[in-house]
Every structure is written in structure tokens, then in C-alpha cells.
Amino acid sequence: MKRVLVALIAAIYMAAPALAKTAKDFFIEDSTKVFPLLSKSLRMDMLDYYVSGQSVELENAFGGKSQLLKATNQYVSVRLSDSHSVEIWVPDTVAKKSVVVVNYQYRVPASDGNIVVYNLVDMSENIKAFDAPDITDFISVPKNSDMNKQEVADKIDIPMISYDINPDTGEITASHNLNEFLSQEEYARIEKYMIKSIRYVWTGKKYKRVK
């Protein structure tokens, strides 16, 4: 019985990109959940070129061009297409308890994005690791202003929030991009009430907003 249990546990660990101990390992071993446009052989070619000092564009599954922009043990950045990029960051923690932080970046045409933290063992989402900001988190209205917070929020039909990951620390910067989406006149009405960016630091278990 013990032998069967050990074999089962081993199979689970071997099946996941989880045991990817670095971001570069994860980039190669990912089962296309994060990089569906890039086959494993293509990802290996991209990394080989990068390591040799060449960051070249290679054809992806849709016939477009993809490019590995940066690759370190903790961080990988890939441009999948002209409108879609991905950043991944792997904290320096115990492998079996570790996570991979994935930043899906879009430009459609304004910048937008989504942060997902996956548990490396089984690629399930770790929803407690990052509490994404709402557009109201970017609104700061002083007392005696001509608008209140809700009135400012009501003028924002579609929140456009993008993210950037610091390659060295994993710090996340969330930025609203309403100036790219709203007309100049619409944005001018609310600009003075908007905080441009919010920072989050990795505590070892989850992200915490920097006040």
C-alpha cells in the first residue's frame, strides 16, 4: 500500500511543470496552459537562441511572430504577438510549495492585463496570493471636491488595468490606462482624482499592497 501511495505522489509531481525549479524550466515544461501558441520544441529553440545572445522572432502556432525577450532563473518575458505578451516570475521558495506568477498582458488597443498565481504542483489557481485591484482602488477624491468617488467611478465604463513584474523582486505594479481608452475630454474630467499606479510586494506567501 505504501509503495502504491509513493508511486502516486511521484506521478503527480512528475506530471506538473511544478518541479520546474526556475522560470526558465517552467517556460520549457509548461503544458501550454500559459503558452498555448508555443510548442515545447519552439520554446526550447527560443531559449537556445536567447542563451546564445540572439533574441529572434519565431513563427508561432497561428503563423504570427513570437519572441523571448528576457530569461533568468526567476523571470521570463515573452512577446507572443503584437497585442499579447506574458511575464512569469518564480519566487525563490521551497519547490513543492512554490508558485508561478503569470502576468497576461494585452493591447486591444489600450493596455489591459490579468495576474494569475498558479500553484506549481498542480497548476491550480492560488486565489489567495494576489488580490487584484478594482478601478475604484485608483480613485482618490479629497474632501470638498466637485465629485465624489462614486461619481468618478460612474464615468469609467471599462476599467483598463495592466501589470508589470519587476524581474528581480517580483514586485507588481498595477497601472490604470484610462488615458489610452477614454477621449482626452473624458479623461481630463477625472484625471486629478486618479492614482496612476499601485505597487504590490511578495511576502513569501502572497502579495501585499504597498500603502
Give the SSE layout:
Elements (H helix, E strand, L loop, with lengths): L1 H14 L7 H7 L10 H12 L5 E3 L5 E7 L3 E7 L2 E6 L9 E9 L3 E9 L29 H6 L6 E5 L6 E5 L1 H4 L2 H7 L6 E6 L4 E3 L2
Antiparallel strand pairs: 1-2, 2-3, 3-4, 4-5, 5-6, 7-8, 8-9, 9-10
Helix pairs in contact: 2-3
Q: Tally the beta strands.
A: 10
Strand fraction equals: 25-35%
Calculate Rg over CA atoms: 20 Å
**What sort of overall outline do the alpha carbons produce when their principal axes are compared?**
globular
Please give the order of strands in the largest beta sheet: 1-2-3-4-5-6
Structure, explained:
- The chain is of the alpha+beta class and 211 residues long.
- It is built from 6 helices and 10 strands.
- It has a 6-stranded antiparallel β-sheet. A 4-stranded antiparallel β-sheet has the order 7-8-9-10, with no helix packed on it.
- The protein is globular and about 60 Å long.
- The model is unreliable at 1-18 (pLDDT under 50).
